[in-house]
Design brief:
heterodimer, A: alpha/beta, 20 strands, globular, B: mainly alpha, ABC transporter involved in vitamin B12 uptake, BtuC, 76% helix
């Protein structure tokens, strides 16, 4: 099984580990070996048990059965601190640093080195922090407070913390989900240098391009059980997807040609000081227009302003030729607009509320009879849409937080599609959801466009943009830098425009 | 299905307070001789009338995650206003209308400070609590207006026609509470209040006019507090600047005791009305036992803390117990 020359025993391994929560068996006889000097990718659909596995390795959960081995010796992690002592460090998607402490203080929090006099040895802390960052080959000011650091920099602080702790195993749980392309590249450089220095890395990601670019071996997990473990070079995307889903996914981007109708949405000269400037575009019925660009280019902000959740300073929005008042989501909804927002947990759903109430939150008035809204009316409507979107749930009265990420997204979609929009904004519609659901969402968008809905899709995933869009608008630093037809949109042309480099093609 | 709904109801957050109220009523009528007399029920209901009134909009406000601590001061300022208008010979009908308008303006000021200026309602209404009380002192100073006709006082305390021991105001509050309950639990606008309290950003993304809603709730709270002020004045036949001092705490106590979460997003009118009555019954029973008012204050405070602590404690116990229990059953389940 050894690839890349690791001949010794694995640094960390799971052997036949099972873990259940209530009646849900999160892991079943799962096995995994991590060797020094390898980047090991772990892939699986949402709910396949990846997070549980990470939490067992991090000492958060204890396995019900099976063994955990460090250097071939059995260990029992009863708390995260045991895992840390054994040299295991976990980098989460969104690290939680103390915002008012400096970077250095965050790195040494709870284990500050002491001087002879018993005071904190600040000089040593700073020196070790500098060393850690220079080993990583990145520049982060050790003195600055953690507040205001980008998520990417926060992750680097966490990695530096792991280095100063002499961690031998680094677990990265979807680290790139909130990173821009450049930031992700930098993270990968760091990961490779750590591997070359002899660390074992477990890398979890939904993005196959990253998995294939970075990893040495790939372990696939499905329904809590081990499926396969192979050198990355022996695999391709189709094989991995098939193993993850357990069946063939017919087509990830089932784009159909829709007949393009009249102009439905006209945005003209939309400007919000310091956020975006002079954004103009039109969308026609049956058309899918993608808003591409790097994270922070202002795409979500534009969409939010058009829908009226945010304000704008200048410009106009017209739907069917009629001007929409600014800053009023209700007016946008009355004009048959819908927005499936970027952050489904914070913006899309009320997590404490039930599935039924969330799914019908946009239609309380039309579902009422004589002004009165019954739970029955809500349940019927929610049930109808739940079936249409193949939502997997126990009881419509359960809180929406009990659902998996993909199913939560379906509730947000139900909530908005049930309003029968004519203009649909979807902001990162497939972020963090598994490949099976992803294909379903894409099919849904295509079907809607086929029915004449004007769709505007914000997406950071280039394959999604290129696979789904009839037209691509690329934004860079708050401005639209290119408008590309489906035929002219390629990874290169989009990336040129997104990074602000002129390629001489399609720039406006 | 029906059984299931009933079972769910019993497990709901307001179930403990409804149960406690029933137990308190039972105990009080068994052990306190005069408790179940018409004279006493009338006294008891009149003593909680103003609290019950103000608790209704307070419930809606706390559910949206805000609070209005200025209600007792609004009551006092209304009372002072009514006193001055009465002394200067303004017809009572006109005076009443002016009082309600004053209440609406005072509530609207809270609303503007919270929504337009974006200030936390806790700070805003502590400020206006002092401000409105101060204005009441400006209007009346240390003196009292007590020259209201006796017929008004007895009119305010009159029983519902034909029912001894049941003041008409109690019936009016019951009807109002039903209206509030229907609004909160069975209309779209009412249900969106829970969304605002749980996650106002998601509510805004769903098209709920969050600021507008909050503005109107504070205004409503002002109007209701001033109606409570009018009733309070007539009920006791006096206007004083220091009247109903600290009453806002009893309103908040009743609301929290009734199962409304101080963090917003959870609560019901049934629970709150039970909370108001429970506090009233306890005070009344203790008074009949001849226990001093200091002890009453301590009891009120203790109940308030208990009502905030208990749901959190219960949730913690439940989650702690859930783990070992479920893993045990699941092991049994696996073949």
């Amino acid at each position: 099984m050894a690839v890349r020359g690791p001949t010794g025993p694995p640094v960390l391994s799971l052997a036949d580990v099972s873990k259940a929560f209530g009646n849900v068996r999160a892991l079943r006889d799962m096995s995994l070996d991590l060797h020094a000097g390898e980047i090991h990718a772990l892939v699986g659909e949402n709910g396949a048990g990846k997070s549980t596995l990470v939490k067992i390795l991090a000492g958060v959960h204890r396995p019900d059965s099976g063994r955990l081995l460090v250097d071939d010796g059995p260990v029992a992690f009863t708390a995260p601190v045991d895992a840390q002592r054994a040299g295991v460090a976990v980098i989460y998607q969104e690290p939680t640093l103390f915002p008012d402490l400096s970077v250095t203080e965050n790195i040494f929090v709870g284990r500050q080195p002491r001087t002879r006099w018993g005071t904190i040895d600040k000089a040593r802390m700073r020196r070790q922090t500098r060393e850690a960052f220079s080993r990583l080959g990145v520049e982060v000011d050790p003195e600055r407070p953690a507040r205001g650091l980008s998520i990417a920099d926060q992750q680097l602080v966490e990695i530096a913390k792991a280095l100063t702790r002499d961690a031998r195993v680094l677990i990265m749980d979807e680290p790139t989900a909130a990173l821009s392309g450049v930031e992700a590249e930098r993270l990968f450089r760091v990961a490779r240098s750590l591997r070359d220095a002899g660390a074992a890395l477990l890398f979890i990601s939904h993005r196959f391009d990253e998995v294939f670019a970075l990893s040495d071996r790939v372990t696939v997990v499905r329904d809590g059980a081990f499926v396969s473990c192979d050198p990355t070079d022996d695999l391709d995307v189709d094989i991995v997807v098939r193993r993850m889903v357990g069946r063939d996914v017919d087509d990830l981007y089932p784009k159909q040609e829709a007949s393009i109708g009249d102009t439905v949405l006209e945005v003209e000269g939309l400007t919000r000081q310091g956020v975006f400037a002079d954004v103009s575009f039109t969308v026609r019925a049956g058309e899918i227009v993608a808003l591409a660009g790097l994270v922070g280019a202002g795409r979500s902000e534009v969409v939010r302003a058009v829908f009226g959740v945010d304000r704008y300073d200048l410009g106009s929005v017209r739907v069917y030729g009629r001007r929409l008042p600014a800053g009023r989501p209700k007016a946008a909804m009355a004009a048959h607009m819908a927005l499936v927002p970027e952050d489904r947990r914070q913006q899309g759903l009320v997590m404490e509320s039930s599935i039924a109430r969330n799914a019908t939150a946009t239609r309380r008035r039309p579902l009422s009879r004589a002004g009165l809204l019954t739970s029955r009316a809500e349940n019927e409507a929610a049930h109808h849409w739940g079936e249409r979107l193949r939502l997997k749930f126990g009881d419509l009265a359960d809180t929406v937080s009990t659902l998996s990420g993909g199913n939560q997204q379906k509730v947000v979609l139900a909530k908005w599609l049930s309003t029968e929009p004519r203009v649909l904004f979807v902001d990162e519609p497939t972020r963090g959801i598994d490949v099976g659901t992803k294909a379903e969402v894409h099919r849904l968008l295509t079907t809607l466009a086929g029915e004449g809905v004007a769709v505007v899709m914000v997406s950071s995933e280039l394959p999604e943009v290129l696979g789904m869009a009839d037209r691509v608008l690329v934004m860079h630093e708050g401005r639209v830098t290119a408008e590309l037809d489906r035929s002219e949109a390629t990874e290169e042309s989009v990336m040129y425009a997104a990074t602000g480099t002129t390629s001489g093609k399609g720039a406006t | 299905m029906a059984l299931e709904t009933i079972a769910k109801r019993l497990r709901a957050r307001e179930a403990p307070v409804v149960g406690a109220l029933l137990v308190a009523l039972l105990c009080a009528s068994m052990f306190v001789d005069v408790f179940a007399t018409g004279r006493n029920t009338s006294f008891l209901l009149l003593s909680v009338a103003a609290i019950a009134l103000m608790a209704l909009p307070m419930t809606l406000i706390v559910i949206t995650g805000e609070i209005d601590l200025s209600v007792a001061s609004t009551l006092a300022l209304t009372s002072a206003t009514l006193g001055l208008l009465w002394e200067s010979g303004v017809p009572i009908e006109t005076a009443l209308v002016i009082c309600l308008v004053v209440g609406a303006l005072l509530g609207a000021l809270n609303g503007v400070l919270v929504t337009v200026m974006g200030l936390p309602s806790l700070a805003v209404t502590i400020g206006t609590m002092a401000l409105y009380r101060g204005l009441a002192y400006v209007l009346l100073g240390d003196r009292a207006v007590a020259s209201y006709p006796q017929s008004w006082v007895s009119g305010a305390r009159a029983p519902f026609p034909g029912v001894e021991g049941l003041p008409w105001i109690a019936v009016a509050i019951l009807v109002l509470a039903l209206l509030f309950a229907v609004f909160l639990h069975a209309t779209g606008a009412g249900r969106s209040l829970f969304d605002i309290g749980n996650n106002d950003e998601a509510a805004r993304f769903s098209g709920v006019p969050v600021k507008w809603t909050k503005f109107w709730l504070f205004t409503l709270s002002g109007v209701v507090a001033s109606s409570a002020g009018v009733f309070w004045t007539l009920q006791y036949g006096t206007s004083r600047a220091d009247t109903a001092f600290g009453l806002e705490l009893q309103v908040v106590a009743a609301v929290l005791l009734g199962g409304v979460s101080i963090f917003g997003g959870v609560g019901s009118i049934l629970g709150v009305m039970s909370g108001v009555l429970l506090l009233g019954v306890l005070r009344n029973a203790l008074q009949l036992f001849g226990i001093s008012s200091d002890v009453l204050l301590i009891v009120t405070g203790a109940i308030l803390i208990a009502s905030v602590v208990t749901p959190n404690l219960a949730a913690r116990v439940r989650s702690r117990r859930a783990r070992p229990l479920t893993s045990r059953t699941s092991k049994g389940d696996t073949p």
